[in-house]
Structure formats: structure tokens, C-alpha cells
Amino acid sequence: MPHAFDPASDAHTFLAFDYGTRRTGVAVGTRLLGTARPLTTLQAQGKAVFALVEPLLAQWQPDALVVGLPFHPDGAPHANTELARRFMRGLHGRFGLPVFGVDERYSTTEALSQGADQAHVDAVSAAIILTQFLRNLE
């Protein structure tokens, strides 16, 4: 019987996504270093985003994927929460990799406070989301 995937021991490289209906930020990071860096922002809507994800997976060969899940400040889900979950299911279904969701509250605010401009804020947010995930693996 195969063992359950454990991101703390089985995965070394991750791609993270700050999913949006028009733009999706992407970051890469490793468990070994415990850090993440922004890669790019994908400009696509709906299922078209998966065609842009595929070459990134080929290039970076991640062991697992991380997706930011948006919530209201009180922790309640909102309309984009289900869209992000649907994106997670699409990633797993198309590419067969483990996909983990991370609470992304305030990641955009943090990215802007770090000086990210509008063109890069989604990728910086993805890096913040992935850094948070990697810290939780420790």
C-alpha cells in the first residue's frame, strides 16, 4: 500500500500559485532552503491558465504544488475561495501532482508593503504564500 504524501519529507521543490480570475502569480521554492522567489504572472482566464502552467512544471519539475486560498479577515470563505479550490482540483487532475491549499489572507497587502508594483504583486504574493507553507513544514 503506498504511503500518504508527506510534504515535509517527500517533496523538495514546490511551485505556488496566487490564483486570480485574470492573473495568477507563480513562485518557486525548496524545502531545503525554506525560501521562495517570485517567478512570473500568468495572464489567462479560466482553463486557459493550465496551458501556461504546463511549461513551468516541465521547467521546474516540482514535487508538489501550493495554491493560496482567499478568506475574509474573519476566516469565512468568499466567492474566490471556491474558484481557488476548483483551480487546485484542476491542477491535480491535469498534472497528477499533490496540491496543498494555504490561507492567503493579507498576502497581497504584504507584497505591496514589500514594494511590489502592480505588475509583480501576484508573483510576490505567491512567494509569500509558499514561504508561509514552507515555514509550516518545519
TrEMBL record:
GO biological process: rRNA 5'-end processing
Tree of life domain: Bacteria
GO-annotated molecular function: hydrolase activity, acting on ester bonds; nuclease activity
Family: Belongs to the YqgF HJR family.
GO CC terms: cytosol
Domain annotation YqgF/RNase H-like: ranges: 12-111
Protein name listed in UniProt: Putative pre-16S rRNA nuclease
Organism (species): Vandammella animalimorsus
Segments crossing the lipid bilayer: none
Main location: cytoplasm
Localization: Cytoplasm
PANTHER family the record matches: POLYNUCLEOTIDYL TRANSFERASE, RIBONUCLEASE H-LIKE SUPERFAMILY PROTEIN
Record's keyword terms, sorted: Cytoplasm, Hydrolase, Nuclease, Ribosome biogenesis
Function statement: Could be a nuclease involved in processing of the 5'-end of pre-16S rRNA.
Cited Pfam families: RuvX
EC number annotated for this UniProt entry: 3.1.-.-
Presence of keyword Iron: no
